[in-house]
Design brief:
Elements lengths: L4 H12 L3 E5 L10 H9 L3 E2 L8 E4 L5 E5 L7 E7 L8 E6 L4 H12 L9 H6 L4 E3 L3 E3 L5 E7 L7 E8 L10 E7 L5 H12 L4 E4 L10 E4 L4 H25 L20
Antiparallel strand pairs: 1-12, 1-13, 2-3, 3-4, 4-5, 5-6, 6-11, 7-8, 8-9, 9-10, 10-11
Helix pairs in contact: 1-6, 2-3, 2-6, 3-5
């Protein structure tokens, strides 16, 4: 399902009349435009398998191994769900993201999923500490404003495999956090380079662009007029989509043929701790 010129024109029309504002820190920038994710995957050949008239978006990769679901009517706090089926050489895995996750941050993960993984994988801890996050002895790291927490925790007391959790919470009192704003969860089998891509984009000091009236995740987000014009935002999106098309074609040419194992009946993947 390639991105059509009509779809790119619709993106351009919407953003052409929005005055860009720079919003930081990134974890408080708000959801932004979901098409940063969906256009990128469509450019890489992912297929829409959901009802076009439904609010839900369901995309499958060309090899049918990966599935991304966006459901703004979800009864849970996870609006984005990314799942990989087990293949002959690789395990299946699952990740989910809350309503207010910035789509342009999530797009860094989906872009990395499209591309071939790098030989040297980034250490997620080093990724965030290099951006000024504080790492504590209890196995957590905190953003400079203390509202975003990264934790590598055991899945349960009976299963010692560790999974990555990101939580953005309102300021609390003392050592207690306030209500959760959004979360991200990667199960213990999620590829390290995808976790690293997400965290690298999340901890980046550069602001994200939002329209003047776009929703932010919290009132403490810093919102300033951007030096970028609306056309800059549109051009950057168009250039990224074109680059992803080329990248996906190159990756498919060098990728061995693999077939995802049939989905096994059983309990749904364990979600993040509520």
């Amino acid at each position: 399902m390639p991105v059509s010129e009509r779809q790119l024109a619709a993106f351009a029309d919407q953003h052409a009349f929005q005055i860009p504002y720079d919003v930081s820190p990134r974890h408080l920038a708000g959801p932004g435009d979901a098409r940063h994710v969906t256009h990128g995957l469509a450019a890489a050949g992912w297929n829409l398998t959901s009802d076009p008239l439904s609010a839900e978006i369901l995309l499958h990769s060309p090899d049918h191994r990966y599935r991304l679901q966006f459901d703004p009517q979800s009864p849970t706090s996870a609006w984005w769900r990314l799942q990989a089926e087990r293949s002959g050489t690789e395990p299946g895995w699952y990740a989910e993201f809350g309503q207010l996750v910035p789509a342009d941050v999530l797009a860094h993960l989906t872009d990395a999923l499209i591309a071939s993984p790098q030989q040297q994988q980034p250490d997620p801890w080093q990724t965030v500490t290099a951006s000024g996050w504080r790492r504590d002895p209890d196995g957590t790291a905190h953003s400079p404003d203390s509202m975003c927490t990264l934790e590598l925790r055991p899945r349960s007391e009976f299963r010692k495999q560790e999974s990555w959790h990101v939580e953005v919470c309102q300021p609390g009192h003392g050592s207690f956090s306030g209500p959760r704003i959004w979360h991200a969860y990667f199960d213990e089998r999620a590829p390290a380079h995808l976790v690293g891509a997400f965290l690298t984009a999340l901890a980046d000091h550069r602001p994200l662009q939002r329209g003047m009236s776009d929703r932010t995740a919290h009132y403490s987000a810093v919102k300033e007029p951007s030096p970028l014009s609306p056309q800059h935002v549109v051009d950057a999106h168009t250039a990224r989509i074109k680059a992803l098309r080329v990248q996906a074609r190159a990756a498919r040419r060098h990728q061995p043929r693999t077939t995802a194992a049939p989905a096994q009946a059983g309990p749904a993947p364990q979600a993040a701790r509520r």
